[in-house]
Design goal:
318 residues; six-stranded mixed beta sheet; alpha+beta; 12 strands; single chain; binds magnesium ion; globular; binds adenosine-5'-diphosphate; 10 helices
């Protein structure tokens, strides 16, 4: 910001005055550091993500959604670990102090924070040429229950929590000028799978959130766990809305290689019906084997996908 007084007014008006704290926060926004009281017996899960305008989201998108997306993308990492969201900080690089933009941004931020039960305890506000939003989230989980990437075993089943490819389809529609609907929402207003992540404690042997595409992210589980997978492309859950707007091979490519879906991919020794008995709905898409790498079955005739370099399918946002 240009002057100190407007910097502090902005912090107060759009962030500090809306922050509500439970008694885990001894000092929140307004001091040099936040002072938080971690819950005894719990481990802390910490993650930070930066979202840059016209790289991770369109700069002309609604500020309400930009804020929600920046926070929810970070929360998705807590979901993937099975952590309960507790506290977050926000570093904002703003090209200008546009009051209407800040008001809607603040409303979007606190709407997503309230949904997740996470408290804004501090941050940093600076003027910069490019709009960038950095969110650091802190979650808690009972010691030893984190859903790591490295626990998968041969013989287990690979699951995803929901439809894949929707966000990439929404981004493609966005480029065609479509700024509403289910697919646009999947891209611009993703929902972190927090409740599912917590339910998966003690049930999933490994877990990751799908931010870079299924094959890339499942690849991280396989590499960390030292196993191989066979994935049946015909079992991937796809959105009817995507299949109406685009061809099946295109949607399938997005499901395998598109990013930004923020569904969970996890492995478990339990069957889909055993998961169902525990109140967990997930789609079985493959099985784990000894070895390394991911083999894709069930592709449409004539369609080939190299299982390395998945990022080629995913054009950087915007
Ligand atoms: P300092 O100079 O000690 O770093 P700042 O002037 O950067 O303090 O910030 C003043 C207070 O406002 C601090 O408590 C800081 O955490 C908080 N703060 C600054 N920007 C934000 C923001 N965008 N969101 C939430 N809290 C913020
Ligand atoms: Mg500061």
């Amino acid at each position: 910001m240009q002057t100190h007084s407007s910097e502090f007014r902005i912090i107060h008006q759009y962030f500090q005055q809306h922050a509500r704290y439970d008694n885990s926060v001894s000092a929140g926004i307004g001091d040099d550091c936040a002072i938080i009281n971690a819950t005894p017996g719990m481990q802390q899960a910490v993650s930070v993500d930066t979202s840059i305008a016209d790289r991770h989201f369109p700069s002309d998108a609604a500020p309400f959604l930009i804020a929600r997306r920046a926070l929810n993308v970070s929360l998705s990492d807590l979901a993937a670990m099975g952590a309960q969201p507790r506290w977050f900080t926000l570093a904002l690089n703003l090209p200008q102090a546009d009051e209407l933009w800040l008001k809607a941004f603040s409303e979007g931020l606190f709407s997503a924070a309230d949904e997740a039960g996470i408290q804004l305890i501090g941050g940093d506000t600076t003027k910069a040429n490019t709009l960038a939003i950095t969110v650091q989230v802190h979650g808690e989980l009972p010691a030893g229950t984190a859903l790591l990437r490295r626990g998968a075993n041969a013989g287990e089943t690979v699951y995803v929590s929901g439809q894949l490819g929707n966000a990439a389809a929404g981004l493609a529609q966005y480029r065609q000028g479509i700024r509403e609907g289910e697919l646009f929402n999947a891209y611009m207003n993703p929902q972190p799978q927090l409740a599912l992540g917590r339910q998966l404690r003690g049930i999933a042997s490994s877990c990751i959130d799908i931010s870079d595409g299924l094959l890339a992210d499942l690849g991280h589980i396989l590499a960390a766990s030292g196993c191989a997978a066979r994935v049946d492309a015909a079992k991937l859950p796809l959105a009817p809305a995507a299949l109406q707007a685009f061809t099946y091979p295109q949607v399938l490519r997005w499901a395998l290689g598109g990013g930004d879906d923020y569904q969970l991919c996890f492995t478990s020794a339990l069957s889909a019906s055993q998961l169902q008995q525990r109140g967990i709905t997930a789609y079985a898409i493959g099985t784990l084997d000894e070895g390394s790498g991911c083999q894709l079955l069930g592709l449409p005739r004539g369609m080939t996908i190299t299982t390395t370099g998945f990022d080629h399918f995913y054009e950087p946002a915007i």
